[in-house]
Amino acid sequence: MRRRARKNRSGLHPLMTYVVLIVITIVLSGILHLLDVQATYYHINNITSDITPVTELVKSLFSLSGIKYIFTNTVANFANFTVLSNLIILLMGISIMDKSGFLQTAITLTTKRLKKKTVTFFFVFFCVIASLFGDLSYLIFIPLGALLFYYGKRNPAIGIICSFAALSCGNAINIFFTSSDSALSTYTNLVSSTIDSVHTVNGLSFFIIMAVAVILVSYIITVITENIIVKKLPKYEFTESELEEDIVTKDEKKGMIYACFSAFIYLIIFIYSIIPGLPLSGALLDYSQTAYIDKLFSVNSFFSNGFVFIVTLLFIILGLFYGIGVKTIKNHEDFCDNFGHSLDGIGNMLVMIFLASIFISILKQTNIGNVIVAFMSDIITKSGFTGFPLIILAFLGVMISTIVVPSSTIKWSMLSSTMVPLFMQNGMTPAFAQIVFRFAEAGVMNITPVLAYFIVYLAFLEKYNQSEEKIHLIESIKYQIPYTIVISLTLLVLVIVWYIIGIPLGIGTFPTM
């Protein structure tokens, strides 16, 4: 990667920033534990449906036992940090696609006649709905976003920044009913059934408002990217050969035909394996689950557990057959050599992931995040707010909670027993309470380094950084702040307008009872 001089940035090296965060977390846990900081929230039992108070305490790591935990679990936490293993496997597949020339040809064919803003919008839109595939979408679309803009003769950082913003929002808003939505709806229905069994949440409960939110957020991210982020980023320097116009030859078109036909056959076999009820079909599903989305993405699903390999194999097939068609892959040596292309120079990335895994595991062990969420739950419960003030307070409470606990399921397991009854007592449906929760977390997921995939975003910014100065953690967050402010305000206004007008949230569900 070519490096060039640039005005010095202020701030710590990203690796040192994580070290500082680790030390602060350890010391803070000791202080808060000494002060006996705790908070209580209400939790619903999945089996008995009983709602009982649960007290969360801060656990101190600023002690001998805490130090022992850090030293005995650091290696295991890093080895079990799925971000690392999944990223390396997926990068192998992307390497084959990139080195063979498939990606450059595919990007040229699909974007050459399109305006820059149009390319950005469609890419952002696909990133938002890609959350259907869970957190792995970060590992797929962040590196692909960099290459999309690189081959489009633009700064790859544009693709990295806007893809991360879109993927983070997409974790909470999607036109499809995801496995995460299914898990949240289980809690919503359990809590609401203790008050009123009529108003339940299902796969179509949010379709209308989610469809509007997806289009709106995709447009907002596109506008912010093109009008703010592009202007903030330094000019990316290309060589003369890189700036030459890409012309797709007959051989490259033939290679694309080979690649697309082989991928089509592969996808037919794969899709047949996730369709239940046909002869010898559905082999990748978990039949212990009831809902189809849970059969696909449950912990014991073959599809869920093997999804990384399934996608990687698709990438390998596309790159291999394209390479055979254009003769960039002539023998097994060419094929094997291409595997490591995207892994070149990722040593710094691995160190970042290592330190991030320590920080995230330590923060979870201290329980600070859960205590803050419990505090938010307690504040919402005791506020006595109704109507608009209740919606706004709940929205802000979820935003704060998301900074320290990005996991939607963990947060909602703690907040649902508070939010759902309060909303229902004020004439609002359980589905509306869940929508407020989802929209609130959508806007801030992209600015918390506690999110495991934030480090992937930061690492790829550094990978394509041409300056001698490092991309600092604070700087990477600053790129995301415009998205957070505009998206959060827009989604808050959207739920309030929806509440006032009373438009259906989805099929058979409304904001009010």
Helices and strands in order:
Layout: H1 14-34, E1 38-44, E2 51-57, H2 64-79, H3 82-100, H4 102-111, H5 116-129, H6 136-151, H7 156-170, H8 179-193, H9 207-232, H10 240-243, H11 250-272, H12 292-297, H13 302-305, H14 307-326, H15 332-338, H16 347-366, H17 368-382, H18 387-404, H19 408-425, H20 430-442, H21 454-463, H22 473-501
Antiparallel strand pairs: 1-2
Helix pairs in contact: 1-16, 2-16, 3-6, 3-14, 5-7, 5-9, 6-7, 7-9, 7-21, 8-19, 9-22, 11-14, 16-21, 17-18, 17-19, 18-19, 18-20, 19-20, 20-22
- Tally the structural domains: 1
Provide the spatial order of strands within the biggest beta sheet.
Answer: 1-2
Span between N and C termini?
58 Å
**Low confidence ranges:** none
Helix content: 55-70%
Residue share in β-strands: under 5%
The count of helical stretches stands at: 22
Radius of gyration: 24 Å
Task: Please characterize this protein's 3D structure.
The protein has 513 residues and is mostly helical. The chain has one domain (14-42, 60-501). It has 22 helices and two strands. A two-stranded antiparallel ribbon has the order 1-2. α11 (250-272) runs antiparallel to α14, α18 runs antiparallel to α19 and α20 runs antiparallel to α22. The N and C termini lie far apart (58 Å).
